[in-house]
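SAMPLE LOG
Freezer: B-3
Tube label: C17
Construct: single chain, 170 aa
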Amino acid sequence: MQNISVSQSFDKRKQNSDIPLIDVRTPAEYGSIHANGAVNHPMESLEIDEIPFSKEQEIHLICQSGGRSMKVSQKLEAAGFTNIVNIEGGTSAWHAAGLPVVEGKKVMSLERQVRIAAGSLVVIGVAVGQFVHPGGFALSAFIGAGLVFAGVTDTCGMGMMIAKMPWNRA
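STRUCTURE (predicted):
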């Protein structure tokens, strides 16, 4: 697997239109804005055996900022794909570089949804613990432990659950 910049990906794909650009964000994020020519295959529902490309073909992967596409790159590499390219900076960098994008209805990013949900649950847990029953503090502790786990392992269970919500679907 290799990492390349958005401009390098754009140039390579301009020279060879057979190189697929796979956007691994949720359908809602993809519908909001995506690199021109990108095809959506969400990370949460990506089935390796359903990928319509050969294991030797060069495949460019993109997400919002590079984290999810890196995870999918590693997953594909472990499955035997030999020419996977992760686009550093993701769609944010693609758009900032002035490269062509397709814009649709604006939606809230998955990362922002996770921050709102986690913060809300912590506040609810503290309020319940303070005014209803001390056991409410356990909710805040659980969310805090989940955030630590997400940071250490670079996986986010809450993000995976939120990605499956109806408003994040196509």
